[in-house]
Design a protein that fits this description.
The complex is a heterodimer. Helix content of chain A is 26%, strand content 25%. Chain A has a 9-stranded mixed β-sheet with strand order 4-2-5-6-1-7-8-9-10, with helices on both faces. Chain A starts with 5 loop residues before the first helix and ends in a 25-residue tail after the last strand. In chain B, the strands form 5 sheets. Chain B has a 6-stranded antiparallel β-barrel with strand order 12-13-14-15-16-17. A 4-stranded antiparallel β-sheet of chain B has the order 6-9-7-8. In chain B, strands 2-1-3 form a 3-stranded mixed β-sheet. Classes of the chains: A alpha/beta, B alpha+beta. Chains A and B meet through α2, β3, α4, β4 and α5 of A and α13, β10, β12, β14 and β15 of B.
Chain lengths: 231, 492
Amino acid sequence: MPTGADTVDSRLGGGIEPAALHELFAATSDDTSATTGFAALLALRCAADKPLFWVRDDRVEREAGRVYAPGLAELGSAIHRITVITAHDTVSILRAAADIAACSAAGVVIIEPWAKAPELNLTASRRLALAAARSGVMALIVRVGAEPAPSAAQTRWRVGSAPSRAFAAGAPGLPAFDISLLRHRGGIAGFDTRVEWDCDQRTFRETSVSGGIPAVAAVGERDPRGRVRAA
Amino acid sequence: MLPSENVIRAAGYAPPETPFALVEKRRGAVCIAAADARALALGIGPGLTLADARARLPELAAIDHDPVADHALLEWLADGCDRYSPMVATDGAQGIILDITGCVHPFGDEAGLVGDAQRRFNRQGITSALALADTPDAALALAANGDGRSAVAALPVTALRVDPETHLALRRAGLKTIGDLAGRPRGPLAARFGTAMPVLLSRLLGEEDVRITPRRTPPEVQVEARFAEPVTHAEIALATLDRLMRDAATILSDRGRGGRRFEAALFRSDGHIARLGVNSGQPTRDAAIIARLFRERIDALSDPLNPGFGYDLIRLTVPVTEPLIAQQLELEGGGVTDAELAALIDRLSTRLGRGRVRRFAVGDSHIPEQTAFELPVAEPGSPSIWPQRETDEPPLRPLHLFDPPQRIDVTAEVPDGPPRRFRWRRTLHEVTHAEGPERIAAEWWKRRNGKGLTRDYYRIEDMRGRRFWVFRHGLYGVEKPMPDWYLHGLFA
């Protein structure tokens, strides 16, 4: 499924695989919103007219705030197709996610476990990946405050928020993300790119990395760009 | 049932050695609410103060009267009586009435049912008096005043539920039994003792019948399995439940209806009842789906099903049904997909709880945290209409919302502008882009004093590209000298 961002689509050979498990790691704990936002947009891009299930841990709900429907609507989501499910521990979340991933009537499941979530091991991820492949459901796991561990995911991304291209009068612009492909099950080499979301066309768009970054941003805080972590 | 049953049960089914009374506070004095047979025989009855009673009988034991616990016990007993009839009602603090019309066949005859009930009450250590009669009033009167076998006519007039003055007046008129009253013309009785009296009399005599109001609404569909020998294996109980589901599905299918709620009651032979309920989002009569929901429900129980001494009655009821016409499978699978989705949502709602599987609904307010809320998916309701976004604009509302908003420290600001630098969760954020304010007034019409602080919202972006939604709570100088800043949401 093409994402609309040229680098991503060409490197991945046509786009993101919809019937698969993908992992999205937040670059820092402050990038929670960017990472879940990116997951929601991927879901929107790959299965716009299918039901979206959003499985969240209670602790995530407390820490990162609840999902706000008007904000999702502005990104282009069909709100009436979204079901939010909360559970108080990782095992319940994984069980619910596995049930959803196995149901071919569902479109996408976004899974937000809390922090390290040791229960989400290779076996659990393989179970999800197999269910997703069989039923055609896209499974997206959003990890904040966790280190990449061996998993059966098709792709693994690191997502961080990126400075947007400002609108008139210095207004913050469209959602922008710095994404890095960390690992691909098919052996595709990792890469970094910056994409923004076009709310009207409902597509990702590549932004030139040099444009729109304030000079200060390049100085220190950000991860050194171009670094690819192999897992 | 007597008020002392709880006390006796709590003391290990043995009454205290000495005569005892249950006491309560009445107008500042400790009075006797009920006394046991030995105390009653010594002339210590309800209404006497404890001090007077102790003066007559120093060894009298006083125990606090607990009407709430008594009521709970009565309700528990009434629950247990569900095994005999769906029409069970409680009467006052001590009575249970059953309408057993058409319910006696599992016990052979009426006497068999009464005998079974008596055995169960005895096993629980409950003092009980059972009576059979044509009307609820007559049965209560017989149980309370007679030995359960004598005729209504032989009962004393005190069996009539009128005030004590009327009882006294009746006795003074030489009318001692119900039989004395029965033959008299009702007109003069009404003229002398009030209009309520003849009505009560005719109910007692069975001339007029009233229905009891059952504690539970009788369900539309009810199937049950009784066991001569209690079932002590949970698997067999579950298999029985599955069979009952198939029976219920057949009944529902015959009536062209589907169930929205299913309830299972497992009656244990020692009086405990395990009740389980599952809801389905769509009316259904698919036994496999219902069975799966019950499995989820049982798995989610905090204490697993314990058959203990064994279940002797398993009952499945369908209290809520809706019309459901026989469906033909659509060729392109549209109907199947919807059914699959509904089954998935039911399963998740049953396992995690209805409140944990939610959809979004539009709120009728312009206050950001009230414009959208979440409802259980299972809750009925039409899909909400969401406002269309404006084109050529970045998102104006955040993806995540904090409720309540989180306080932030703004270290540099201009009085009417956006923050330049702020601290949230111990991290300092330098603002590079900002847009605002978007002024959102408080709902002054809902407040008693007609006031409320205005919020000035700003969309801001920090140096590292994080986008926040912050607001200043109150107008500078006008509403507040130094307004506080809050972070309300995070953009993608």
